């Protein structure tokens, strides 16, 4: 046996990427980068090529905000999320509020009302006990406001310098009402696209305190639990096709994912997309597009045209949907693509972002 052959038997084989089906940039990344956690194309490729093949399973394949499962004759929504926002406290909320509202909202996007949460604290050695208590109090208050109970939890501590103060993980379960079937694959040409209010507030609020920026007018996060808003919408009709909360990657990512999942096109009207002036000004200064900036208290809905007006009215009658607007339609043309009709009469494509404009915002 040759020396070359002996070495080949001992040396570990190089990873074989030839069977991977899609594009770079995942193939070109030998290590994890921040964009893999941004909710854009890099995140999608990581899930598609690494996690989904490793985990398998029919339920996971839907890749919705929460999984709809049947257990003991009941339909449950089940979701988990981790929170690494920096800083821990920001105008309008904190990591504790995000941990509750983010998971409650993921369950609500299946039409479920959250019932119970778990909570895991990962603490860095040296973090002040007063900070931990403040986060815990915010989390408990947010749970009570959302009408959910923190039923179980866990605590771990990592060495100083190996964390960033506090990371949180929450999981949640809730019941899906009978007759409700909300998932990205149900988007249908003709559906009216609704958004529950102004976009971009959370991302700009976090950025303002993180970087010490002043935009003339204070911007607060929209962080809120949307379960009661979804209930008001479902009271009009259970036939809501899709709900999605546009968090990481903003409105652009949420709509892009829905278009791909259902193989439909989405056409938006730029003039109808609600962007607060202070958010628009901040984005103009920083070179950001509000369509890609994160939200933590907004939802997007795809509603059949016969019910769209009534659902929109119900949204506007709710405190969390007072600024709701119809912003576009689901179409047969350009499947898998989102386009915007600009105020000047042109059309532009809204691409799925590679990573995210603002990392560590949730």
From TrEMBL:
<dbReference type="Pfam" id="PF02769">
    <property type="entry name" value="AIRS_C"/>
</dbReference>
<dbReference type="InterPro" id="IPR010918">
    <property type="entry name" value="PurM-like_C_dom"/>
</dbReference>
<dbReference type="InterPro" id="IPR016188">
    <property type="entry name" value="PurM-like_N"/>
</dbReference>
<feature type="domain" description="PurM-like N-terminal">
    <location>
        <begin position="65"/>
        <end position="176"/>
    </location>
</feature>
<dbReference type="InterPro" id="IPR036676">
    <property type="entry name" value="PurM-like_C_sf"/>
</dbReference>
<dbReference type="Pfam" id="PF00586">
    <property type="entry name" value="AIRS"/>
</dbReference>
<dbReference type="InterPro" id="IPR036921">
    <property type="entry name" value="PurM-like_N_sf"/>
</dbReference>
<dbReference type="InterPro" id="IPR011854">
    <property type="entry name" value="HypE"/>
</dbReference>
<protein>
    <submittedName>
        <fullName>Hydrogenase expression/formation protein HypE</fullName>
    </submittedName>
</protein>
<feature type="domain" description="PurM-like C-terminal">
    <location>
        <begin position="189"/>
        <end position="334"/>
    </location>
</feature>
<comment type="similarity">
    <text>Belongs to the HypE family.</text>
</comment>
